[in-house]
């Protein structure tokens, strides 16, 4: 991403909105917005493989592992407005497990780009499966979308829930139900 070019675009946007980009409060805004977008879209310049960085461990366990309430912040690709919420990731390993913090890092790689919640849920599930060769993976996301809350239908309290289940989570109803129950249980 070319930061200087993004700054120029933001300055142009301010003018189009009817603002004066030279006034005190706005002089540094293009630079701040460019840095902010750089961070919020870092996922384009990262890969899950790189953030996992070899933190995959041998384990004989074939029990359900679940990480709940991973915070996610992303930007909707239809309106370039934030959506944010929680992500729950579960998997049943064959012989490899991921370091706990790595699940959150994988979520960030896919959150930090223009997204739709459905695709992001699916991408995280596939990535966890790829990294661990787990026999089953499930991901549930519960997010609020500012594009719905601030504009459009203005549904202020609606939470969108999406899920993606792979392998035994897909094939086996009991496994899927156990995961969904644990993931969506209110703390
Ligand atoms: Zn949107």
Topology diagram in text:
Blueprint: H1 3-16, H2 29-40, H3 48-52, E1 56-58, E2 65-76, E3 82-92, E4 96-98, H4 100-111, E5 114-115, H5 117-132, E6 136-145, H6 146-149, E7 160-167, H7 168-171, H8 173-184
Parallel strand pairs: 2-5
Antiparallel strand pairs: 1-4, 2-3, 3-6, 6-7
Bound molecules: zinc ion.
Distinctive features:
187 residues; GTP Cyclohydrolase I, Chain A, domain 1; 2 domains; two-stranded antiparallel sheet; 8 helices; elongated; binds zinc ion
Question: Could you characterize the architecture of this molecule?
Answer:
By secondary structure, the chain is an alpha+beta fold. The protein folds into two domains: 3-40, Orthogonal Bundle (GTP Cyclohydrolase I, Chain A, domain 1); 55-183, 2-Layer Sandwich (GTP Cyclohydrolase I, domain 2), CATH 3.30.1130. It is 42% helix and 26% strand. The chain is built from eight helices and seven strands; from the N terminus they run αααββββαβαβαβαα. The chain has helices at 3-16, 29-40, 48-52, 100-111, 117-132, 146-149, 168-171, 173-184, and strands at 56-58, 65-76, 82-92, 96-98, 114-115, 136-145, 160-167. The strands form two sheets. Strands 5-2-3-6-7 form a five-stranded mixed sheet, sandwiched between helices. The chain has a two-stranded antiparallel sheet with strand order 1-4. A hairpin with a 5-residue loop joins β2 and β3 (82-92). α1 (3-16) crosses α2 and α4 runs antiparallel to α5 (117-132). The longest helix has 16 residues, at 117-132. It is elongated and about 60 Å long. The structure holds zinc ion.
